Amino acid sequence: MSAPIPLTSPEAAPLFPLSAVAHQPDLTLALSLLAVSPALGGLLIRGDRGAAKSTSARALAALLPAHAEGLPVHGDGAAPFVNLPLGAGEERVVGTLDLDAALRGEARLKPGLIAQAHGGVLYIDEVNLLPDHLVDVLLDAAAMGVHRVERDGLSVTAPARFALVGSMNPEEGNLRPQFLDRFGLCVDVQAPTAPGERAEIVRRRLAFDADPAAFTRAWAGAEADLHARLGAARGRLAHVTVPDALLIRIADHAAAAGVRSLRADLVLYRAACALAALEGRLSVTAADVDRAAPLVLTHRRAPHAPDLPPPPAPPQDSPPPAEPPQPPADPPTDAPDGEAPPEAGNESPHTPGAPGGGDHLPPAGDPPGEVFAPVPAHVARPLPGGSRGAGDAGRPRVTGSRPDANPAQLALPDSLRAALIRAGLSGEAAPDRPGLTRADLRAPILAPQEGSRVLFVADASGSVGASGRMGAVKGALLDALSGQGHPDRAALITFRGVGAALLLDWTADAHAAARAVEAAPTGGRTPLTQALRLARVTLDAGRGARLVLFTDGRANVPTQPGADPWAEALGAARALHGVPALVVDTEAGRVRLGRAAQLARAMGADLTPLHLPEHHPDTSLNPSSLETP
After folding, report:
1. Model confidence at 519, in pLDDT bands (50, 70, 90)?
2. Is 601 a catalytic residue?
3. The whole model's pTM is what?
């Protein structure tokens, strides 16, 4: 057995050992794979607070090699662990000019956090709140293993092989899809619900807090075994082979998850190799691919694809759960709110086997519905979130600088750096008294500012006045896209039949918005819960977006057999609480239930009625009316 791994140093507090993390098998497996092969591209840990996300990430550093190429052996015998604070700027992350050296006439780069993490772990808590350009830089370095810095007149390339670990709470917003795809692995963690498991976790934590040194000594043997296992797997990884037939199995997993990016196939290939090496084998098996697939695909899965199964459990674990209950054989024959009953052959409200996506997209069996021409309408309240551009807090973000002899705005630090570099390298002036010339002046490069984003969710069911609702959505969409300067971006979800669909993804094209609304079919029942859940996913992909919901609240399509559609809709509405929102009440007729108002209260949203003309045409849409007015 290897010597116990030192988990303490005179300068650092003891770390909770990874081998002592209880009842999080997927998390410890993913961290182990990343320790074997940092080329996987990083690990994203999503979950509730208090689920051992940061504790496990910190413990990983103690299991990595104590030295890396280009760096001396660390004095405390452990790989570096670098925690990237949320307030860190680009200079702190990538490095910047060493001003002390510049004053001595030397052009030298002061290393940033990426360079400091080489050979260890770079941890980002709340990675979903980090600016996008920094996330991009970090993912590039983690995937390529090389860090390139070109700024302040310097060009530096250095090795950057580190394990990138990011954690986030999905309730606080999601990462953009393009960044989710860049993380190699992802684990969704939750605190266990079984009383015995929770008690064991608390027992270990209390023991660690009472005497960290004694606790780490008690787990030193298990930690040494894990360290030796990971080291042997790293040495074995280069010799692992994958049978060609398993490439088809890898592609099948990616296709079943609805993943377009080929990065998923490549990462799954590498993860299966790392798993085989971790298990002490030189050849990948189908079981390796199946076990690694959920870790690679869970964050890349398309919204309409079936949920991925968890990684297969070892043989000694409990058997898989029983099949989910089947829906009733006969669909309901009545249709409240004046809607037409579903036609024969339509799918049931819930499709087993597609718990995630089956709620979102209407099945092919939905009746095509009728298409109505738009009509004038009026929404009394302004869109949620205040005036245009109100969501842009503070000054525009500066992403860099450029030479400009007559700058309208001066980037003072960069101008001074340019003068120091010129004075130090050319000898034109004393380094401690550099002269500033127009050739040294720099103007800031500002990140482009997008307008606000508005997601429209429209009831396209067969309720009375459907044509008027769709006409009102058309007017609201065009109004949101008609601002001066940077146009606002909008998206549209419609719901009818047994599902909801993203009819229009985020766009600033007013013509595309008009065509999408004008051509939207109507008819069928009211799957409100499915629409609100899809809205939550769409809002996560558009940071700072606002929501406008056109509905009468008369939900009548459950997501589970026997469930109460209205109770489900209220729960989905509460999940949107905190999003700037406006609910437009489209209820008409003498008998009104007032459910739109209840939805608005659950969402914390404003409420306004939809004002339609007393007489409006319901003529079917003809080809000429597809032109934007």
Report:
1. confident
2. no
3. 0.55
